[in-house]
C-alpha cells in the first residue's frame, strides 16, 4: 500500500474528540498490519460467508430491505486474521476506559459489504436506555475510493436529525467513532462494491435483566 502513514497517537485523538464532541473521524487510524490482515481475510471470504443484515429484532425481510441492504459477516477470535482487529479494539477499549472512565465491557463487530446500489437509511445505532451499545465504530477498507463512487456516510446533528453535519468518504483506513445513541447517520447508495467493519462497544447492564437485540 503506497503512502500509508499511521496518524500520530490515534487513541489519544479519539479520546480527545469523544470527550469534546462525542464523535471522531480519523483518516489512517489503524496500524497497516491490522488493515492488511482484514484485507487478507476479505480475500478468503466468499459471498456465502456473508448474510443479510437485520434491524434489531425484526425478521421482516421485505421491511428490512427498505432500510438496509448490506450483507454482513461477524468477526470472531477463532480466525487469526479477524483476531488481529479484535485485539486492537481491546487495546482501544482499555485505553478509553482508563482515559474517559467509559466502563466499556465488550466489543462486537462485523464486516459489511455494500454491493452496487446498496444503502442504509438514516438511523440511530442505539436508543437511550434501551440497549447496552454505547460507542459505534466504523472502519473502511476501500483502497482508491473515488468521489463518484458514492457510498458516503452522512452524519446528522444530535439535536436536529434533519441537519447534516458531515459526509465521510469510505476510504481505506478511515475510522469513525461516535456515541451510538446520539448521532443519526445513513449510508448513501454505493456505486462500487464497498467494504467496512462496523462495530460497537458495549457496557455490561445484564444486571438490569435487559435482553439486547440479538445479532
Ligand atoms: O458503513 C457505514 O458507513 C455505517 C454503517 C452503519 O451505520 C451500521 O452498520 O450501523
Ligand atoms: Fe449505524
TrEMBL record:
Alphabetical keyword list: Dioxygenase, Iron, Metal-binding, Oxidoreductase, Vitamin C
Cofactor(s) demanded: L-ascorbate
InterPro entries: HIF_prolyl_hydroxylases, Oxoglu/Fe-dep_dioxygenase_dom, Pro_4_hyd_alph, Pro_4_hyd_alph_FE2OG_OXY
Keyword set includes Oxidoreductase: yes
Residues in Fe2OG dioxygenase domain copies: 105-203
PANTHER family recorded: EGL NINE HOMOLOG-RELATED, HIF PROLYL HYDROXYLASE, ISOFORM C
Protein name: 2OG-Fe(II) oxygenase
Organism: Pseudoalteromonas fenneropenaei
Organismal lineage: Bacteria, Pseudomonadati, Pseudomonadota, Gammaproteobacteria, Alteromonadales
